[in-house]
Specification:
The complex is a heterodimer of chains A (332) and B (354).
Chain A lengths: L1 H5 L1 H19 L6 H26 L7 H18 L6 H26 L3 H20 L9 H8 L1 E6 L5 E5 L2 H17 L1 H11 L1 H6 L4 H27 L11 H10 L11 H20 L7 H31 L1
Antiparallel strand pairs in A: 1-2
Helix pairs in contact in A: 2-13, 3-8, 3-11, 3-12, 3-13, 4-5, 4-6, 4-11, 5-6, 5-11, 7-11, 8-9, 9-11, 12-13, 12-14, 13-14
Chain B lengths: L1 H12 L3 H29 L1 H4 L2 H26 L7 H19 L8 H29 L4 H20 L4 E2 L3 H8 L1 E2 L2 E2 H19 L1 H11 L1 H6 L4 H27 L1 E2 L7 H11 L11 H20 L4 H39 L1
Antiparallel strand pairs in B: 1-4, 2-3
Helix pairs in contact in B: 1-15, 2-14, 4-9, 4-12, 4-13, 4-14, 5-6, 5-7, 5-12, 6-7, 6-12, 8-12, 9-10, 10-12, 13-14, 13-15
The chains are: A mainly alpha (332), B mainly alpha (354).
């Protein structure tokens, strides 16, 4: 039992359960299928982002440009598809946006791996570049009528239920995007040399290099993968809210990072799991969505997220301190 | 990482203070050249608007806010940390000071103006110090990496400010208070004077005091600093406290200049303060940086910004350029450091042969 509790994921899961209980008692409407669908739907975009952030954090870096990449890819893709009057499937939008994401991620990768620049500052710079470039040269107009493929995608729902006001509410198929991304990333991190390399790089860069890992290649993969995920998440985001706004998404990067850190990933690298990150995302989404349901004014959100980040990071800092102390004792 | 080990090995191979100051100087010269070049280009492109007294006047009202924030940022970066919460702190301090001002001297009435202004400044600085202390506690005692700690407090301070104001601006201060942000002493705007004072004080602190030395040592190698008897916790606490204090001061300048306090004022200043520091030669992994470099960096950025406005570039284009510059400067710094390193190695090889 003690060993189970020491696992960070279990800890987060318990917090989520506790919160759900509390919210359910305060507002019985909380325990409906509609709420569950809502929460899942709101977790998709943040979840995809979170998976990317996890990979970066595990490698010992930090990326704050992924929301700018997502906005860029989403906006350029929708604008282009709209411009050529594309009527086909949403898959092309995903492919195009994802490919653009890889390209932008490659810029990050190039700067980070060939010039050995600090990841925070590189991505701080590129996030401004991407957003500034899009708004200055591509456009600032919000596209409120999406290409039909994306609209069809946003309307696809599973297991519909009739809501109190008479409409139907179902589980958005967008959850499948997350359901594909999660196991793939889990597999990469857990069962491939590349994934082990990412953990090794985050644990100790010099040691990873001496062990014969090609750090540049690993970093290249990480930032391209994050870019790809960002591109995908951008299209999902636009489809779900049925508008493509170039002003969206940028500004949410910190809450995503906070969610992943809450899920047990350490900003110093080497630690973090896919399951933990997803739980962390759920936790933040539940907090965000329920605050409003519980009647807490929305202007509390920023403060609450700040407190969540601080609590989450203190826990991980405390844990790493404790394990550090334990290993010291063992050596003695 | 490699940059860090490069500079470290440089110091190992050449521990003399002279080579260090020579390195600093080359960076300063380069910056001075950039600043002059930007000035000349803008002056040539828009001689009738850029080279006017009015433009210089308005520029010297604009940059001190960012300047003081950049000094705060620089200080934390010298220890190898970062303070992303400076803008949040400044806005929170400004808002509380503004609330106090308004409650003491409601618009249109004749309250105890002197006391109110004094109190408001004290409150802003006090809030800044408190916010800084909290950052310092999180970084040095709780052991949270500075990026994350200040990321969290940035959200927290901004969140508190939003909760207090419900997102609205706090407006309407007494005339005398606005003097701090808009007044002129002889021909010098008050914000400029404040910036010059802060810059002068921090030049002295960093170069002439034990605390300054400790900051540099801590930033160069925290473990070595601790073993040489420096109380790292105390140094970090003080660093973040001072950074918070400066942010509080910025809060006063901002609300006095704009006559309003808002929770989300100047959020882009965080990036710009990092940009100014790095452009000014501060090493983001700690240990290197000068106030004079920072001043040159902020001047060149201000020339660029005013010039862009006159050329009617959009704000988004400016955002793009900031990001581009940040990365360009980092790449140039990296290339020049590795070039110098290689040259030094070759020289040593030659000397070994001879």
């Amino acid at each position: 039992m003690n060993k189970l509790l020491e696992k960070h994921e279990v800890f987060v899961a318990f917090i989520i359960l506790g919160l759900v209980m509390v919210f359910g008692v305060i507002n019985p409407n909380f325990f409906t299928r509609a709420t569950l669908y809502d929460m899942l739907r709101s977790s998709v975009v943040m979840g995809i982002f979170g998976i990317g952030v996890l990979m970066v954090l595990v490698s010992g870096g930090i990326d704050i440009s992924f929301t700018a990449i997502a906005a860029f890819c989403m906006y350029v893709t929708t604008r282009y598809l709209k411009g050529i009057g594309f009527e086909g499937s949403v898959l092309l939008a995903f492919a195009m946006s994802g490919a653009l994401g890889i390209l932008l991620g490659m810029i990050n990768a190039l700067l980070i791996s060939s010039f050995k620049l600090p990841t925070l500052i590189v991505t701080l710079g590129t996030s401004n570049m991407f957003r500034g470039f899009m708004l200055a040269f591509i456009g600032t107009k919000i596209i409120s009528v999406l290409p039909p493929g994306m609209v069809r995608f946003s309307r696809m729902e599973l297991f519909p239920v009739t809501t109190a006001i008479g409409g139907t509410n179902g589980l958005s198929v967008s959850i499948f995007v997350l359901a594909i991304v999660v196991p793939i990333t889990w597999f990469i991190l857990k069962y491939t040399m590349l994934g082990r390399g990412i953990y090794a790089l985050g644990g100790d860069r010099v040691a990873a290099e001496r062990a014969g890992l090609n750090v540049s290649v690993i970093q290249f993969f990480i930032y391209c993968y994050v870019g790809f995920l960002a591109g995908i998440a951008g299209v999902v985001h636009a489809s779900l809210i049925r508008t493509a706004s170039p002003f969206d998404l940028v500004g949410t990067e910190l809450s995503v990072i906070a969610a992943v850190v809450l899920g047990g990933a350490r900003i110093t690298g080497g630690h973090g799991t896919v399951l933990g990150s997803i739980l962390g995302v759920f936790l933040v989404v539940i907090m965000n969505n329920s605050l409003i349901m519980m009647g807490v004014p929305s202007y509390w959100q920023s403060a609450v997220i700040g407190i969540i980040i601080l609590i989450g990071t203190s826990i991980t800092a405390f844990q790493s301190k404790r394990t550090g102390r334990i290993s010291l004792v063992e050596i003695e | 990482m490699v940059m860090n080990s490069l500079t470290r090995s440089q110091k190992l191979s050449n521990p003399g203070i002279k080579s260090l100051s020579a390195r600093m100087d080359s960076n300063l010269w380069r910056l001075l050249l950039i600043t002059i070049a930007v000035f000349l280009i803008m002056g040539l492109l828009r001689p009738h608007t850029f080279l006017t007294l009015r433009n210089f006047r308005s520029m010297s009202y604009q940059f001190p806010e960012l300047g003081v924030l950049s000094i705060a940022m620089m200080l934390t970066m010298l220890t190898g940390g970062i303070d992303l919460s400076v803008v949040g702190t400044a806005n929170l301090a400004g808002i509380l000071a503004a609330k106090f001002l308004i409650s003491m001297v409601p618009a249109g009435s004749e309250g105890p103006v002197g006391v109110a202004i004094f109190g408001a400044i004290l409150i802003a600085l006090g809030i800044g110090v408190l916010c800084g202390l909290f950052n310092g506690f999180l970084v040095s005692k709780a052991g949270i990496p500075p990026i994350l700690a200040t990321l969290g407090t940035m959200q927290l301070y901004m969140g508190i400010a939003i909760v207090i104001t419900k997102g609205y601006a706090v407006l309407g201060y007494p005339e005398q208070f606005l003097f701090i942000g808009n007044g002129v002493l002889w021909i010098f705007p008050i914000p400029l004077i404040l910036f010059v004072i802060v810059a002068a004080i921090f030049t002295v602190i960093l170069n002439k005091t034990a605390f300054g030395l400790h900051v540099f040592m801590l930033g160069t190698n925290a473990t070595a600093a601790r073993f040489s008897g420096i109380n790292n916790t105390l140094v970090l606490m003080r660093t973040y406290l001072i950074s918070g204090f400066l942010a509080g001061l910025t809060g006063v300048i901002v609300i006095a200049r704009t006559n309003s306090a808002k929770a989300d004022y100047g959020t882009s200043y965080v990036l710009q303060a990092v940009l100014v520091s790095i452009l000014g030669g501060v090493n983001p992994s700690g240990g290197f940086g000068t106030v004079s470099g920072l001043i040159l960096a902020i001047l060149s950025l201000q020339f660029l910004s005013s010039g862009f406005n006159m050329l009617r570039f959009s704000n988004f284009f400016k955002e793009f350029i900031w990001g581009f510059l940040l990365i360009l400067v980092m790449v140039i710094n990296y290339l020049s450091t590795s070039y110098q390193y290689r040259r030094r190695l070759e020289r040593q090889k030659r000397m070994a042969k001879a």
